[in-house]
Design brief:
Elements: H1 2-5, H2 16-26, E1 32-36, E2 39-44, H3 47-79, H4 88-94
Length: 104
């Protein structure tokens, strides 16, 4: 998404109908789908929508990273001949619980 934002297009350089669509999106009144030969190829959306999409992407990236780390931990346990289930420490961390090693 950020690559698309790296090359801004001045709205005043666009033909009138496109510039009007940009203005509507700018004021949060419209999300405009741009088509080529009847197929959707791009969208004009308010910048607030872009911020929301970026935040969702970042959340998705975090979730994927956590899954990859979990898969690595499973592979490590398998290689060491240990059980591959969730350890108490992992379960506690997922639930936001701090285990007290002296509380046994």
């Amino acid at each position: 998404m950020s690559a698309a934002l790296a090359r801004p297009l001045p709205a005043d350089a666009a033909p009138a109908p496109f510039a009007e669509a940009v203005t509507r999106a700018e004021h949060g009144k419209a999300r405009v789908v741009v088509t080529r030969e009847g197929r959707p190829v791009a969208a004009l959306v308010p910048t607030g929508d872009v911020a929301v999409l970026k935040a969702r992407e970042d959340g998705q990236d975090s979730r994927l990273a956590e899954e990859a780390l979990a898969e690595e931990a499973i592979a490590r346990r398998e290689a060491e001949g240990r059980p591959t289930g969730t350890t108490p420490e992992e379960l506690a961390a997922r639930c936001g619980i701090t285990l007290d090693p002296d509380a046994a």
